[in-house]
Amino acid sequence: MKFFLSILFSVVFSLSIQSQEPQETEIDDLFSELDDLTIEGDNEVIASFKSTRLLIGQSTERVKKSQLHFRISHVFGKIKGIDNFFGLDQINNMHFSLEYGLTDYIQLGVARSNKPDKTYSNSIKISALRQRSGSKSFPFALSYFGSLDIKTREYFPEARNNNFSGRLEYVNQLLISRKFSEKLSLQLSPTLVYRNLTETQEDPNAIYSIAVGGRYLISRSISINGEYYYTLPTFDAHSARKNTLALGLDIETGGHVFQLFFTNAFALHPGKFAINQSGNFFNRDINFGFSILREFSL
Known about the structure:
The protein has about 300 residues and is mainly beta. The chain has two helices and 14 strands. The strands form two sheets. Strands 2-3-4-5-7-8-9-10-11-12-13-14 form a twelve-stranded antiparallel β-barrel. The protein has a two-stranded antiparallel sheet with strand order 1-6.
């Protein structure tokens, strides 16, 4: 009897194993297909640029969730020669900012720039679309950048100091970029700056510009960057020589990004450098500047 029961148990066990094997194989195949679809369909193109700035202007990159970026930037005086130590004797402007990733797609920021208006900025960047490859590919990245700037310098005549709304200006940018290869990324940035109060009645409140820029990676940690802000000639004081141009390098060193650049802009916030008020780059109105970015996890 015991011998008969052991044989019966062996037969039932073997049949059970045989009936489960095809099901387990089918399940494994299903999970494998789902993994392949997920990887292929959700392949975001990353690191189009090394930081949230091209050089002095914004890029489509954003701060990831729970990350904090602290950036400090300096622009020195005009490069004239050894008499002013090639501009390094004079700090023309200082700008610092904090940018925080509220989510992986929303970045909040505060900043302060000392010249020319002692400006405080409150900003938001929304990463609306990301460039993707694979079966669900998308050809470019699209972000929105908006900033409310408050100018705090003393005005003359003094009566203007009591006009708070006249101290406000608004920056709106669409940032559109594409990473063409591991080395080359380009960006287009339509920009609107609206000033509540201008210096003269002839100056327009709204100024439109289009920025073009890009980076070319020359090593894993160094890239050549450039950007140019073309201001639309919609006002009498417009001069093509005053459009902002910046050329420089990004250097990444594990948790830090150093940017070295030459520019005709003396201001480091778009409410100034995007409105046709820079020097003439090709008439030696060139300033050397740098910025240091440090990333923290909160």
